[in-house]
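Below is a complete specimen:
___
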Amino acid sequence: MGFTFHIGELRVFFPYDTIYPEQYRYMCELKRALDAKGNSVLEMPTGTGKTVTLFSLITSYQWAHPELGRLVYCTRTVPEMSKAVEELRKVIDFRVEVLAKELDAGSEAPKGLAAGHILAVGLSARRNMCVHPEVSKEGDRERVDEMCRQLTAPWTREKKTASCVHFEKYESALGQQSQLLDTGIYTIEDLRVKGMDKEYGWCPYYAARRLIQASSVVVLNYQYVLDPKVSLASSLGGAPSLPGGKMRAGGLSSIEPSIVVFDEAHNIDDVCIESLSVKLNRQRLDQSSGNLTRLGNEIERVKKEDASRLQEEYKRLVQGLRQAGQIDEAMADQLQSPVLPEDLVSEAIPGNIRRAEHFIALLRRIVNFCRRYLHVERAQCEGPLSICHKLEEDAEVDSKSLKFCHERLRSLLNTLQVSNLEEFTPITKVADFVTLLGTYSQGFTIIVDPYPEAQGIYDPTLILRCLDASIAIRPVLKRYQSVVLTSGTISPLEMYPKILGMSNVVATESFSITMERKCLCPLIVTHGPDQVARIGEDESPSLGFRGCCSMRGSRSSAWAVHQPSSVTLGLVCFFTSYRYLEQVLEKWYETGVISRVLKHKLLFIETADVVATTYALNLYRQACDSGQGAVFLSVARGKVAEGIDFDRHYGRCVVLFGVPFQYTLSRELRARLEFLRQHYDIKESEFLNFDAMRQASQCLGRVIRSKRDYGVMIFADQRYARSDKRSKIPDWIRHFLEPGHVFMASDLAVEAAGNFLLQMSQPFEEKTGVGASVLTPQALQELQAEDSKASDSKEMEKSAIFAPPLKRLKLNLSTPPDPPSSNLDAVSKQIW
């Protein structure tokens, strides 16, 4: 199973017997970016093996270039992480098998890394990795984190009041200089099995955090790379810098020869913005005051019982800042001696936050200032510098002290031996708020909204909103050699480097899906049978929905009309908001649409409750498996639209009602649009259309998950027929959009969809060779030969442009004319 081939000088190990043409093209572009040590933005259709393509190329590149660092593969959910690690396992197992077969007879077989093995681990939250018999039963993430800290904190282990046997075995293994695990590919579940095994028995979470430092491939969540608060604990590739911190010499200032891949990166700018945004309200500020009171009492108690702990805290803070790269060794040595005059004026650690009681007093003044600032009757928006100026005037807080509040509070909580950190979340949020406020003067805005939920409900909210997505990803771009953004729906490609501040972008390519038959049927429905235009929430979607529901058969629509109970078909509908979904359901109930649908199919609805939605999804799949079929009503930008696949009979048709624009009256969105216009020259309409169309593409991409799958995609809104919307549909979808399917009535769309489903139900044999949708090794060699000929012909065409003058020049030099005669005039002599 599998084969190897070459892209240039690179030998690629591919674990399957055949390869898709788009997979080969994808590898070529990715290799070009890695050769140039640059970044890339690549779009590849869903269901075409993007994950195995990435792992095959990059691990082969690591094998050919041992000096290359690790691969950091970032994804969003635990199921996606598990799927990715399983694909990686197939790639490495095939490579080991091939290398073993190529050994000379009688030679000793190498082991470990020399045999092609690697160490690869997945890392997730404690809730997903814990194996403690009591803690693992808890479902709440915050509760699991709190119980884990109470069992693993150093002061708890010293008192021996309670402990975790798995963490103790982990510490014991480290003390014995154990490498914890041999080379291999380990999913989260594999690590949990090792943690419950008597031979190993260590904590999977802490073992994974330790193993990622020695791993060749790491699979984890976006937050471990982008969120500075989480990345501090992950120890990924060394100690990361704090916000606003300075790179230490010889450390993070040099680029690491590693590769970071963000899979499903169509919403990466939103992830970056959310990781650096903080919300505060009156309730949270009141809780912060309670936190400060408790910390003050705890400080007084500790001062009486153990004053040395507070004396050592300052030294630990200095060492922590040194390890994080904010101060160098010389500065750290100076700060260790408090009698030096430089210590009193040093900017690294301002004097008003060094003593614990002084720091608590500073936080109390900040909380009181925020309370006063929230007393507004109208919404207002200000920049960070304006708020910092008010803090200096009203609360007497130096802006230089703000940027160290997060690190100072963390150090204080450790000194006071606080295990239940979740209880101090309110004051931690305040510290995060002022740290970001003091670190960044641009790219942020502060919004005070007295009525955030609804008009008339006074609950003022203070929002520190990040407007520049490039701030969060900038350390990643500066630190790593190559960053790859990839997704099935990441069009338009040119927008992402602009809003993320990506430079040295070598490859930006959208690969179309190669199919021997038309397996996709995108339709743009602009009006009903009465020729009345359908636009967003103003339309009457019952007509379009009745038409879609009449497509009951995966094989024959006519047969489905007569025997709907025997047809297995999943129909998924997406709406622009929960409010719109509720209005449509109310209209359908009044007009009797729902009762007619329920005669043939069950109806399931996505809600804001995650548990209820998961239960509805399971019932929906059971209904499709049973042969009855079902309809699932969902919401764009929701859980179902982002991470749930409706492959095969679970989704033969997907309908999107309306264009999923953001709420344009949102003050946060308005502030970001203004920032993009001023700093990136991106017009408001351009960004709104870009954001809406990537969400629309994500919804419609749920319907097809492989080349053998097929489905109907219906854009139920006439605005999709406009060029500004249609041009932003991914190329691999727009490629199948026929001119006659752009301005369609709902009844014609039903007929077209029925004919398509009937055609797809017919037997089909896949072709082989060049031009086929699946390439054998021989066909791939033929394709490479054709590409080589095409490349050579292009080079010849380029050289031919300069060939005539070169030939004339050569002729003049090789056959010089006779010397000039003496009777030539002076001008001829001068020319000669």
In short: The CA atoms of residues 199 and 570 lie 47 Å apart. Residues 237-253, 334-348, 537-567, 806-832 have pLDDT under 50 and may be disordered. The radius of gyration is 31 Å.
